[in-house]
Amino acid sequence: MAEKEVILTRAGLHKLEEELETLRTVKRKEVAERIKQAIEFGDISENSEYEDAKNEQAFIEGRIITIEKMLRNAKVIEDDEREAGIVSIGSTVTVKDIEFDEVLEYKIVGSAEADPLKNLISNESPVGRALLGQKIGSIIEVDAPAGKLKFEILDISE
Description:
39% of the residues lie in helices and 27% in strands. The chain is α/β, with parallel strands linked by helices. The chain has 2 domains: 6-77, Transcription elongation factor, GreA/GreB, N-terminal domain (Helix Hairpins, Orthogonal Bundle), CATH 1.10.287.180; 80-157, Transcription elongation factor, GreA/GreB, C-terminal domain (Chitinase A, domain 3, Roll). Helix 1 runs antiparallel to helix 2.
């Protein structure tokens, strides 16, 4: 089975590359030092510091493998690939929630970069999917877990 393409913005690609570099150069050394110190405490069979360090090491190695796989399958969306005035991955979209008369701003990103707390929404999310391909002035309806949401697109920027 082919691996899934990971859609990233240029900023998202750099963020993953930086995280990978930090994990390889800084975090690996830190956890190796923690393991070494824990072993020096003696009996590792009942050493919680050793167990914690080994668990962190497993997490770090797993994250390294995950990021390497993501980077191998990355498709970077370049600014010049996007059509002006149309919502696409990498666009920042200002919308008005019609029901609550509230203005919101979302940046559409690939699922690997999504962080709803920072208003970075995935192109695969219900709202992200509904916004893609739309223009300023469009009214969209989204079936979300909280019910039907209705937005008017006020602005699209890159």
